[in-house]
Amino acid sequence: MLEEFIKHKTEILASIEDIETLINEDTGAADNRLPMVREQLLSNCFNLVILGQFKRGKTTLINSLIGKEILPSSVVPLTSIVTILKFGNDIRCNIFMEDGSEKIVPPEELSDYITEKGNPKNVRGVRCACIEYPSPFLEKGVLLVDTPGVGSTFLHNTETTYNFLDHLDAALFLMSADVPISQVEKELLDTIKGATQKIFFVLNKIDNLTSREIDEISAFNKHVLEEMGFIVQEIWPISAREAIKAKTSNNATLLSKSGLLNLEDALSSFLSVEKGNIVLNTVIAKTKRIISQKLSQMALEKKTLEASEEELENKINTFQKLVANLKQDREDMAHLLGGESDKLCLKVEEMLRVLEEKEIPRIKKCIQSFCDNHPDMHPTTLRDEIQKIIKEEITRGFDTFRRDTEGEISNKIQETMNRFTNRSNTIINEFKTASEILFEVPIEHIEFSVELTKDNSFYYMIQEYTAPTDEEVKSILRAILPRSISRKMVIHEMLERVVSDINRNCGRVRYDITSRLRKTIAHYSKQLKNLGYDLTHQIEQTIQKGQLQRQAGSESTRAELALLANKASALKGQREMLDQMSGTINLMDKNLPASKKDDKNKRHV
Description:
Blueprint: H1 2-27, H2 33-43, E1 46-52, H3 58-66, E2 83-87, E3 92-97, E4 102-105, H4 111-114, E5 126-133, E6 142-146, H5 155-163, E7 170-176, H6 183-192, E8 199-204, H7 211-227, E9 236-237, H8 240-249, H9 252-258, H10 260-273, H11 275-306, H12 309-373, H13 379-439, H14 468-480, H15 483-528, H16 533-551, H17 554-590, H18 594-602
């Protein structure tokens, strides 16, 4: 297996070098995509990305795989920066900044750079953190990548995770045993479905569950995943918390009970048998995409050189109209999207109005019932007790509202975004098809997608807002007035308090939901502004290059056409060779020894 991997790796590197020479000679400038692909293959590094919703235990799981609590973890959403662990003979913590600089920090200072508490909203400008650690698990070239959880209270953390998805080779998707798979998790899975050939599904936090309960939640999640199109042969139940305890205390019994050993066996088998083939196939696929894009550009340049002046002018004018129509479509959708935003905000208003109509009489009824059951309670004590009831009942009512509302608002936003994304893809594909017909060349498929960053937690506060001086006056009145009258004053005051408290909290929730809703749609609108930009820019650059070549004269044009034909033929030959190599690699994978194949199939996702 190793010999075959080295052989194919050498062949692919040679192919990349040839392709790079062809492309750079044609453009006159270096294309940075191929060097990145080559570096991935040379380093033989493999990104095993740990993904999941916030507070699923991703950081704790990484610490348990390493065998040491090197990454900070907490009971609140903590990780805010992508953090990469790689093998090193000594512990070394490298912080890479957005300005290109780098600094080395001691492990105890890591939290100042990679956590939300130490580096809120990434005010320090950290790009990523890389930690070298002498772990046997990392010696095989795997990079363990800790990502911020999606759907947390911090929108920027979700964005950070989505931005890293292009770099994953395999994913370890962490779910929690105490809750079913959520809508946020399903959306993340939809995003990575086509991005990797391997996903390990892990069920964490099995500490307090019985075997039957673990089986039930695993079966439920498996059903949901299969409905989404995943083939799930196994979900790995673990307790990352118990596993790290076991490793740090050298407790073999506790480690066995944690379930981590089974997951480690599956990961080790995968890394030793399948990892190499996935790396090779990933590099081949990326290289072939670059070739296809370059061939499209060459074909377009050829058409530009061959066309008559009149024909070329007509094509350019038509293309400019297509671009103008695309721009108008973008503006129209942005306008419509603004209207959808207003509709969703009105929906929030309606939901909060229903909440007020429901909660005010409910809480008033609770107060009245308490007063009826405590007819002899002193007015001041009664006031304090009723105030506690108001706080408890508002908390209970708004908690229920939050739980019921999260899914509904989330689904409505997702429905809106899906509708506009589908429309955007229709527009860009129509533009692509029209351009292909116009220039009579195939253009590489481009799909518009936007990674939605959603923050589904709703907040409310219950504050004391009666001024101390007012309360002093009321206390004096209660002391000098008859108890029956004082009691009526207290009840009347508290009943009015219910209305004002609920109104205030509805206002806070209204602002919170609508501001984050508009922020999400603004994020989408920003992406929409770039719809088709890469494609139009690519076509415009190629036409300009052809026009400049035409100006050099007919003889120069003929020489350029011959050169383009030779380079296109060479690139097609490279693509065919990569196709054959991919077939050989996949055939080799199918012909694994029976023991390896059986072990692999048991763990296939």
